[in-house]
Amino acid sequence: MTGTDPTHPTAPGEHPHEPAEALDELAEAAEHAAEEVSRFGTPGKPFSRSPFLTGLVGGAGLITAYVAYQAVVNVWSMLLLIFVAAFLAVGLNPAVVKLRAWGLNRGLAVAIVGLAMMLVFCGGIAALIPPLVQQGDQVIGKFPDYLQQLTHNQWLHDLDKKYDIISKVKEAATATNISNLFGGVLGGVSTLFGTMFNALMTVVLTFYFLAAFDRLKSGAYKLVPASRRVRAERLGDEILAKVGGYMIGAIGIAAVAGVASYVFMLIVGIPYAYALALLVAILDLIPQVGATLGAIIVCIVGFAAGSVGVGIACVVFFIVYQQLENWIIYPKVMNRAVAVTDLAAIIGVLVGVALLGVVGALIAVPAVAAMQLIIREVAMPRQDQC
């Protein structure tokens, strides 16, 4: 019976000595390692794990964590600027991609998108500032007449007689109190220049992110293991596309708010309708709270330049419209643009406002869309495999 007995060891010379060669290679590697170690000395014994040393290392870790926390707190405002700039760059990148599909290089495409943004921004300022300055002078010039009309109003007269409102307002509206309210002259100037600096830095960082968008994106994808990189790229590109869709939807909602406000102000006869409607549209880009800020401004003008009835009509209109926008228009548009359910959009915005304020409101819907995509494509398939 021919064959080899598996229990019988292979005699020397019968087969190639592959196991022996492997052992020789391991021995040589061990010798080289020993030589390397000997060049730098023999390793000593490990430190004893005494309770004192464990506590010392733990305390050092706590101190390091606290220092890192304080560093993040100190630069938090700048981190928010960077985050907002990156968010805007993601939203503008589809326009750059479209221009590149027409044969333009990325630098020229970014320059065209930036120039278009600056033209829109400057055009909005040019359309807003002159009417506000001209009509604002008219409001200031007629303010004594408005105040006199308000004091002659029977409803306000009864309130003033009962609660002494006008005298209290006059006592509170002193130059000293107003100066303290805005932090004094230096505080107001500092706030103004700080806001301008933050806006300028956000614009500059946005264009830097746009110029290096592909490089930053590919670098981020390289941090993912190669076996999962293709899937990560597809998921990431889908999330980035949702951010662009969100920005388009937000601009559409702001346009609807501006047009609706303009039509309403023309109907009730509120002056400065164009400037106020443009201001409402700009503020409405801020989810949830932006419409309220615009409504407050329009209602003040309605009470001052119109009458009590016009002012009450403004209050009623904006209360109804804001509810319509928050619960119907905003969720429907975002569901179509970002594929986020109505309930998820509302909850996301509320949580975002509670966590990060205006910035949280801006990123809430794209963040919810990203979470839904990850849960649907990553978490649920893993649960189905269990």
Give the uncertain stretches in residue-range form. 1-8, 11-16
Shape: elongated
Largest β-sheet summary = none
Q: Roughly what fraction of the amino acids lie in strands?
A: under 5%
- Give the end-to-end Cα distance, rounded to a whole number of Å: 51 Å
Integer average pLDDT: 76
Helix content: over 70%
Structural class: mainly alpha
Alpha-carbon Rg, integer: 33 Å
Which series of helices and strands comes N to C?
HHHHHHHHHHHHHHH
Multimeric state:
single chain
Number of alpha- plus pi-helical segments: 15
Number of strands: 0
Describe this structure in words.
85% of the residues lie in helices and 0% in strands. It contains 15 helices and no strands. Helix 10 runs antiparallel to helix 11 and helix 13 packs across helix 14. The longest helix has 47 residues. It is elongated.
Considering the chains and any ligands shown, give keywords for the structure.
mainly alpha; 15 helices; single chain; 386 residues; elongated; disordered N terminus
Give a summary of the structure in a few sentences:
With about 375 residues, the chain is mainly α.
